[in-house]
Amino acid sequence: MAENIKTVVVLIQENRSFDHMLGWMRAQNQEIDGVTGEESNPLSTSDPSSKTIYFKNEAEYVDPDPGHSIQAIYEQVYGVQYIDGQTPITPKDVTKPPMNGFAPEAEREQTSMSETVMNGFKPGAVPVYQELVKEFAICDKWFASVPSSTQPNRLFVHSATSHGLTSNDTKILTKGLPQKTIFDALHEEGYTFGIYYQSTPSTLFFRNLRQLKYAKNFHEFDTSFKNDCKKGKLPNYVVIEQRFWDLNGIPANDDHPSHDVSEGQNFIKEVYEALRSSPQWEQMLFIITYDEHGGFFDHVPTPVGVPSPDGIVGTNFNFQFDRLGVRVPTFFISPWVEPGTVIHRPSGPTETSQEDCPETLPNAKKLREIGANEEAKISDFQRELVQMAAALNGDCTKDIYPDKLAEGMTVAEAAHYVNDAYKIFREECDRCIKAGMDGSYIPTMDPKEPANKPCPLPVCGMLACFGCNTNTSTSKGD
C-alpha cells in the first residue's frame, strides 16, 4: 500500500478510550476486540464485598472530565493508588496490568463518576464511526504512547518522544520542545507538510516549528482546507488541529470531555467528505486517532516492558518510558484498505483497491441539550495552551507567568488570550520575513514595548535596531 500513498492526513482527537468509543462495535464485526457486557471493575479493589460495576452501552454527554494524570492512570490500570515517593511508577512484578482501577479512581474523583467511565457508546450514537468501521480499517491494539495526559502523547505523535515530559514543564514549554519532529524530517527530504488549524495550533509546542521557514506551513482550516482539497493541492503530510475551546456558536469538536462528541463526529464527517471529493483521494491515507484515553475504561491490558525511545528519564516520577498508555481508537481510511478490516498488529492492512468508498457519512445527533459553558474553568491542556501562547507573545517574561497568568481564566477568556497571542506571533513572523530574516530564526516578543513597523534592513531583529526603533528580537532555532 505504501507506494500508492502520496498524502497522509492525521487528525488527533482527545481523551477517549477504545472501549468507550468503539467497544460495542463488536456487535457488527466479531473480529474487533471489543466488549460483551461481562467486563467489570469493583468499586473498591481492597474490599472483596465491594459493588461490581459492569460496562454498559449507555454513554451520553460527559461532564465533568474523568482523571487522566499519570497518577490516576496508574491506579486505573494496576488497581492500587499511587503514593508519591513510595510507589514505583512501573511495578517490576506485574507483566499484565489487571485494568481494574477505573471505577474506584473515578468514584474518588466524584460520586457516581464510576458509572460514567464504565460506559461506552452504542454504535448508532457515533454514526460516523459506525460507518468508518464498516467501510475501512480500525486498529484494536493501538495504545497511547505514554500512560499520562494529553501533552506528552501529542508530542509523541509528531516526534516519537515527549523529551521526558510526563506532564507540563513550564521551563521547557517556554523555550519550546527541542526534539526533531516528523516535520523537520519531511522538510529535509524535500517533502511538503501543512498544518490546518481551527484553534491556535498546539504543534507550536515544538520549538523548531516556530522558525520563520515554517511560517507558511500553517493554514487556517476554515478558509484553506476544502479549497486545497478541491484543487488537489494538499501537501504530502497534513495535520488537522481542531477547535479546543468550547464556545457558544463555535463549539469544541475535539471530543475532550465536557465537549459534545457529536461535534467531533460531524467534524470528522466534514474532513472525510472534503478528502473523498479531492482528486488526491486515490493516493491518500487518512488517520484518525486519539492522544489518550481520558480516564475511560478499557479492558485490554496496557503493554509493559517497551523500549524507551531516547533513554531520557521522565522529568517527574522517574518514569523510564517502559510501558504504554491505555488503548485508544484509531482508523486507517483509504481507497487502498479492504472494507471492515481490523488490524491487530503493526503489519497493517492487506492492500486492495476500493472503487466505491462512500462519498458522504451520516450526521450525528447532538448529545448536549444546553449551550457551551464559556465560564467553565480551563482544562490542564488548555492551561498549557495559554502558557504556550505566553511564550509566543512575550508574556512569559512577566512575573505572572506561569501560574498566575492562567489562574481563574474562563474558557472564553483563555480562548481570546491564546488567539490574540498567536495573531501577534504571526504578525511578527510576517515582519521578520519581509525584513529578510534568516529562516532558522524564531521571533520573540517584548511585551513591555509597543510594536512598530518593520525595518527594511535585514539586520533588523538580530539586535536592537535604533534606526527604526523596532522591538523585534530573535533567537536561533535548535
Automatic annotation (TrEMBL):
<dbReference type="Pfam" id="PF04185">
    <property type="entry name" value="Phosphoesterase"/>
</dbReference>
<protein>
    <submittedName>
        <fullName>Non-specific phospholipase C4</fullName>
    </submittedName>
</protein>
<dbReference type="GO" id="GO:0016788">
    <property type="term" value="F:hydrolase activity, acting on ester bonds"/>
</dbReference>
<dbReference type="GO" id="GO:0009395">
    <property type="term" value="P:phospholipid catabolic process"/>
</dbReference>
<dbReference type="InterPro" id="IPR017850">
    <property type="entry name" value="Alkaline_phosphatase_core_sf"/>
</dbReference>
<keyword id="KW-0378">Hydrolase</keyword>
<dbReference type="InterPro" id="IPR007312">
    <property type="entry name" value="Phosphoesterase"/>
</dbReference>
